[in-house]
Amino acid sequence: MATSRKYAHLLRHLVVFETACRTKNFSRAGEVLGISRVAVSRQIAELEAHLDTRLFTRAHRSVHPTRAGVELASFVEPALASITEGLEKIRHPKSARRLRVTTTAAFATLWLMPRLVGFSAEHPSIEIDLAVSDRYLDLDADEIDIAIRYGPHAPTGAVPLAREMIVPVWSPSYEPRTPLTRPEDLLSERLLQLSGRYRPEARWDHWFATRGLDFPGATLSTQVDSYITMLHAALEGQGIALAGNPLIDTHLAEGRLLTMQGAEPLARDIYWLVIGNAHHAGASAFASWIAAFFSAENPLAAASVHAESHRA
């Protein structure tokens, strides 16, 4: 206890130190803590003087912990995290913080939401806070526990769930102008085309190019600026869309969408699972639950999720 009192006056300095390590910038650390850059610099200097060692090397626009700084951070960061967790438990004794999950609007609307009732039935004590965004939310700043990302490259610590394979799809109520048995037939059909921020690989001209076909532009077409709108239009029989698994799996299985028999699917990006906060009581359960849906196609997913959720 006497030793604890000896360093009690440095607790505020250690909070500033941890924030500076995380942001690698004294000005940014000041913004996070609501103090000035000068105050951050002064408290770091006082901590360095007390320990009689340099904790940071200063560059023009950034700072980096020295070997001593890295060693100190290895003690300070988990200690502060433990204190924060304890305070939150005391502050909210009757209910734990909701499990905060983020994903894209399309994945949330077309895949996750219809299945969340199943997760709630299996885990009635875990409440979900779903943060829907088509941009990558910051896992720390936005307090994200689980992220389902979509992209060509693996985010840090990510586990692959499934690669999207896109195919032409249409509703049984759609009235085709051709037999729809060959890729060439689609050139004469009403095509639903994505516009705006979507990458070229999601568009019809790229799909036709991979089939060795010129696509001068559909005579009959409808432009839409969202994947959800495009798929709903296809379900309503308004045209033919390029869409992929896992978002269309249920529609295909239940006959609400049809696809061209024998047409080779086109590989797109990958759905990734990221555990942002393995310490949340519900993170492991949710990660295992969602990985189970994809484990048949990707047997390594469930094992990888298990390892990631138990990693120290």
Whole-angstrom Rg: 26 Å
Q: Mind telling me the CATH class of the largest domain?
A: Alpha Beta
Tell how many strands the DSSP assignment holds. Answer: 11
Question: Average pLDDT value?
Answer: 86
The CATH homology group name of the largest domain? Periplasmic binding protein-like II
Given helix and strand content, the structural type is: alpha/beta
Helix/strand order: HHHHEEHEHEEEEHEHEHEEHH
Blueprint (SSEs and pairs):
Layout: H1 2-7, H2 11-23, H3 26-33, H4 37-51, E1 56-58, E2 63-65, H5 67-91, E3 99-103, H6 105-122, E4 128-132, E5 146-151, E6 159-170, E7 191-194, H7 204-210, E8 221-224, H8 227-235, E9 241-244, H9 249-253, E10 258-259, E11 266-275, H10 283-294, H11 299-309
Parallel strand pairs: 3-4, 3-5, 7-8
Antiparallel strand pairs: 1-2, 5-11, 6-9, 6-10, 6-11
Outline of the structure:
The chain is α/β, with parallel strands linked by helices. Helix content is 41%, strand content 19%.
Characterise the protein shown here.
By secondary structure, this protein is of the alpha/beta class. The protein has 3 domains: 2-91, Orthogonal Bundle (Arc Repressor Mutant, subunit A); 99-160 and 270-309, 3-Layer(aba) Sandwich (D-Maltodextrin-Binding Protein, domain 2); 163-268, D-Maltodextrin-Binding Protein, domain 2. The protein has helices at residues 2-7, 11-23, 26-33, 37-51, 67-91, 105-122, 204-210, 227-235, 249-253, 283-294, 299-309; strands at residues 56-58, 63-65, 99-103, 128-132, 146-151, 159-170, 191-194, 221-224, 241-244, 258-259, 266-275. Strands 3, 4, 5, 6, 9, 10 and 11 form a 7-stranded mixed sheet that branches. Strands 1-2 form a two-stranded antiparallel sheet. Strands 7-8 form a two-stranded parallel sheet. Helix 2 (11-23) packs across helix 4. The chain starts with a helix and ends with a helix.
